[in-house]
Model the fold of this input.
Amino acid sequence: MKWEKKNIPPELVKSLAVKYGCDLLTASILARRGHTQGEEIQYFLEESPQYLRNPFELPGMEDAVDRILAAKEEGEKVLVFGDRDVDGITSTALVTGFLSRLGMDVSWRLPMGDEPYGLSLRAVEDFAASYGTLIITVDCGISNIAEIQRAGALGVDVIVTDHHNPQEEIPPALAIVNPKLPGSAYPFRDLAGCGVAYKLVSALRFALKSHLYGQAMCLLNIRPINEAYVIEIAKMRNLAVVDRLVETLIPGMVEIGATRLPAFLEGQQILAWDAPLQKKTAAHIFGRGIDIQMLDIAGEIGKEIPQAAGKSLLRIKELSRIARYAERELTELDVFINLFGSFARRREKLFTAEDPSDLQLAALGTIADIMPLRDENRIIVRRGLASLMEKARPGLSDLLFKLDLAGRRLSTTDLSWYLCPAINAAGRMGSPDKAVALLLAEDPAERERLASALVTMNEDRKKLGGDIWTIVEPLARENLETYGGKLAFAYGDAIYRGVTGIMANRLVGCFKVPALVVSFGEDIATGSLRSIKGYDLRSLLTQCADLFLDWGGHNYAAGFSMEKPKWPLFLERLKNAAAAMELGAGEEEERVLIDAELPQDYLTPDIFKVVDRFEPYGEENDPLIFMARGLKVSEISFMGKTEAKHVKLILNTGKHKWPAVYWQAAERVKRDFDLEDKVDLVFTLSRNWFNGMETPQLVITDLRRS
Done:
């Protein structure tokens, strides 16, 4: 194994530490991982919900909110339609629960048994027949063109909230809320479906609580620059900037009517910081006959944010935490915008007692759907995890107890290995309704019954997966040569549809190439694809798109359904597509990328402060890998249920003794290291939970004699 530690300039590390107020070790890890831009770094160093992006920046959000509020006002019948996986289940529970608490007539539905992914014609027609008028899709809908057309014909409006890649044709929905929609200006594309659902609920809370919803207003600031003045105006709607105007003017050189100001300000409420000074400056520029009506908001903001009281925008900028993360030099207007947003969120109490509970669901959906743990996903998962440990919401608390996870520190690993699979099992075994019912049930006895059912289904799913792997793996190995060694492919009647995704994922791990597993129903073939880094599945799927009844997903995880008579043509296309696949050359030697070398003095339990700062770990944010030199092997013991394959060590730094585990390393004892040896090692840090006790430990990746 090749150890690699990227060289980074010491001056870069020092500048990051000073600018962002972090320690040198944290700064060095950020730099080594390529995080040197302020907007990236803020999501590692900050966790306040104020850093979550404004939901109204998502396309279609205000239209969606208006339609849902109209449905509430008119007492309309609403259906929330989701997907059968964890992301879809949590999204369904999140939106349904919120609308139900508003007193709306809301029901929910998911694909059951062998029903295809996404909104179905049957669901649309059943809902229309029961006099329903509004469908909200969650974690699906972006590819359901025919179904949404049918809904329109039946007088049913559809709001699509989704995060999957749109296809060329966009469905004719009343509103589509999807960060990946063509033309979307939302700064972060990779929200989970449940992340989008949480944004919808947040936007609805804002609309219901704040008198600012839908209001047109401008923030205005005038500042001197040399002999001229810069007039900056931001047009705001729902706390989001929708337009900007900048005019640089020399006093007495132009009348206000000859500028763009009158048209831009028409019909707007104008807010200013220190309005008397702003009016005086405007009169200096345009003459005393000009009076721009503006409201001084500085006093109100100062009451809510005492740090800002009595200070100029320039001084506030110097003190601002948000300003330190900006890559460009912020203007006084930028500071005003941030201040006004913080003021409104505090005064209106927009982050409610319900938000932490909702973030538990959003965190689960984000982790289960393997979304990148960067940008605001980090805050969603971090806050959701913290809330889950502090007070798990009903349903999740029952499941945590059943899985023996209650009352302990939880990590993304615990959620992805234990909690998410238990929820996912309901969908894989054809009964996703049981998982949604668990998350929405008010009766403790009902939750107890449903939690037990999910645990049982998960055990059944594990056994079924083990049985089907014995079918899938040989088929894929046999087909590998047929597809040029570039695609692991298995299909047949004996493959249960609910585990095709799991099987495809295992094939990727086994053969290190993209994988496709297809289950045959009576009339329909349903497939799941998983990919390796660097190969986008869309390039394969688009070549067969005309054969599918439905298809979609992400760049590295996707699925489709098709009529079985088209199967021979699909096989022919697939061979041609596989032949053209460019996967890149594999590495000759396995590499491990080291985040930091730790002196032995650093190897104390305090190092977890740095480890925890980089939580949550997962997609695009692997656990920190450290290197240390010259640790003494004080104890060696062997582990393994039937065969001693693993090693447990005690490593001595002189000041502290660390328990360590080294998987699959029994044969290396005596040969590569032994008792009393001093060793260099590459490792991650973890907490081992056993018999109610938490013990810090090293998990060794590789080890050598010093």
Remarks:
- The chain has five domains: 55-209, 217-347, 356-456, 481-579, 590-705.
- The longest strand covers residues 626-639.
- The chain has a mean pLDDT of 93.
